[in-house]
Amino acid sequence: MTVTMERKGPRKNSWDSKISSISTVNATTRNYRSAQSSIISSDSDIRFTRKKLTAKHKCGCCIVATFILLLLLAALAVYLGYTFFLPQKLEEQIFRATFRVVEGDKFSLDLADPSTNNFKNRSRDYRERINSLFRRSPVRHGYIGTEVLALDGTEGKDVIVHFNIHIDPTYVNIRAGDLESILAKEISLKESLFFRNLTIDVKSLVVKPSHVLPQPVTSTEAATSPVTEKPEPPRVCSPLRFEYCNRMGYNVTTYPNIFKHRSIEDVLENSIPFRELVDAECYRHAYDFVCRVLQPSCRKGEKEDEMVLPCRGFCREFMTGCGGRMNENIKTFLDCSRFPEYGQGANCITKPGCVDELQSRAFSPRVCDGVVDCQDLTDERTCTYCSINHIHCGIGRVCIPKTKRCDGRTDCPDGSDERGCLSLAASVETIRKTEIITPHATKYNSEGFVIFNEKGEVGKLCTENINRSLPANQTIAVLHSVASSLCKTLTYQNVISVNVETDIENNVSYVKMKNPTAPEISFVRSKCPSKQVLKVACSDLECGIQSTHGPEGLKVLSKMATHGDWPWHAALFKEEVHICDGTLVAPDWVATTISCFQGQPKAEWTAKFGVTRLSSSTPWEQERRIIGMLKSPVEGSTIALVKLDDPLILNDFIRPICLPSENVELTSNRVQCNTLGWARNREQLQRIQVKMADMEKCENVSISSVNSICTETAHGQNDCNEEEFAGSPMICQNKEEDKWTLVGITNWRIACSKNGQERPRVYDKISSNINWIRDSIMNDDK
């Protein structure tokens, strides 16, 4: 088959193309012949000619260029004028106003909730009335709008309307009194155009700048002469009548609250700024917190009723989210350092929804894993292994009934249920009203009455049989022996005083010594007609002890830290960001490194104790602000001491470490050393075992001095899974003493290299600074 294609046109010879193809097909083979190549040709030439610009055209181009340049200069002048010479735009003025509707509208409970349709419809009606008034008033040019903040009142009675008025001061200069006059004039009319069918009490009308917060209510009586102030009457519980907080799980409150509000009327008058915080959604649990400070819950007490506030951690989270929106007057009262800490002897309310928050942050595996991650222990107490009304052991997946506390048999993994069966406290009442969260002591008391705890019942030690059966000198010896044994059990070194006093408490159980002269002290239940009880004072708490690893406690020190493993470890935060670590050397002093603070502008630093997971919280967690720093005077040393704003409350999970002697021995086989760091995701505290190394290894990676200690990991790169922050400690334990000592502090952050090889670790010696550290702590106590 042959195919011929021709292109017709005026230049036929130049564009003709022929394609020939011959194909022969048979049953076995196929032969192909390629077509001839196409030939393209052109007979035309293309030539370009450049024409020079004449003088006339050159002049036109210059004019255009000059015009463009002038436009650019004009634009630059306008920009500079607006930037440097135009007055700054005045900030919008906001005035807060309120009035009472006495006829034409009635208050109902659903108006207290801004999310209801009734509130939305009613507030829109009031907003349109107020807008219509001001848009026809002399301030209409500067009037921006209004917003209804809240509707208050008593059910079936008058409605109190709270609203804001927004003014642009660029167009009008106005004061609160001018706005109040405009409203009062319209309200006073018998037939108001804008408030038709409503009767408003003119005397209830108040307009003031939004930054002016009503001051706490105080007595208006002027003191004409010096008088003695009357003591505050005993606090009592009263019904909760603030409708805005009727969704809380309690129905009683107490006055005065922390804002010095002494009645429901005071609360209503000052509630609008707090409602604005809730509406702004600046914090997830803002509604709960606001109601708990305006209308705190109340519990019955022996002498007077008690106000129950949010816990300090709850307050700090609220202030982090909403603090920037608050008036300074409110911030003065909401000083979180004045709020109680959970589990530290005072009752308080933790933030709600801890388990839900863990799950929302993809931490579901932490629920019911045996490690406490919530202050109220809801992540462990609601598990299948923990029955209702049981107390969690604090460590491990074990809960016990309260009656198994001090029953003679160990039930908790760390033996905490059989520790503290004898303790010191100011009274039995303080023990009874403290919520039991775990068997661990929430606070070490160095002095007080001797308190026994047996199967959940508490009482005092009666000395009547000792005074009656033994001579005076032998009685004193027996009582001192009991006091010395008790102080040692409570990990105190010395006894300050031993006294017998008459008990003034009522409804108290007693025990007596079964045989005062026996080598082992045992107690039996008894009556105490004379009410002669023992009071003891101890001193010098033992340092470097892991209370949860005692004779009856945990036997193994795991790599991943559990609660109580390292009670002296501190995490240092700069404005809520974990920057460094430190070590507790005294109740209000932490040892760290100066490099944490070098080159840092002034910022708020805090220290957290009792945590092993940074994103979790515990009942034993305590937080303190850092208010001062001392740099080591030793040449070449980078160690620093930081001062806490308040001493810590010491317990099994927070207690200081020991300081070394000047000639501490680190090369002995009887000494094991560790450092503490965080997992690579900076979540879990863990230990790394280290050993001494030649200084030559460290000189290649860091600048060393006579105050330096060079170490390397005891198990090589297998331990290369953690990041050691600046200020992390090198701590060592003499196996014969079972006490941990702070030996060194790292100056820089230490982590694994890219190839997985662990680099040597350099620490500054504590022994070179021991005299300075002790002098600084002692001088501060004077």
Automatic annotation (TrEMBL):
Residue ranges of the TM segments: 59-82
Positions of the FZ domain: 232-357
Where the record annotates domain Peptidase S1, the positions are: 556-778
Q: Which UniProt keywords apply?
A: Disulfide bond, Membrane, Signal-anchor, Transmembrane, Transmembrane helix
Q: Which GO terms describe its biological process?
A: proteolysis
Membrane association type: Single-pass type II membrane protein
Name one molecular function that GO assigns to this entry.
Answer: serine-type endopeptidase activity
A GO cellular component term found in this entry reads:
plasma membrane
Report the record's disulfide bonds.
C237-C298, C245-C291, C368-C383, C406-C421
Its localization reads: Cell membrane
Annotated SEA domain residues? 91-212
User: What InterPro entries has UniProt attached to this entry?
Assistant: Frizzled_dom (IPR020067), Frizzled_dom_sf (IPR036790), LDL_receptor-like_sf (IPR036055), LDLR_class-A_CS (IPR023415), LDrepeatLR_classA_rpt (IPR002172), Peptidase_S1_PA (IPR009003), Peptidase_S1_PA_chymotrypsin (IPR043504), SEA_dom (IPR000082)
Name it. Answer: Atrial natriuretic peptide-converting enzyme
State the organism named in the record: Callosobruchus maculatus
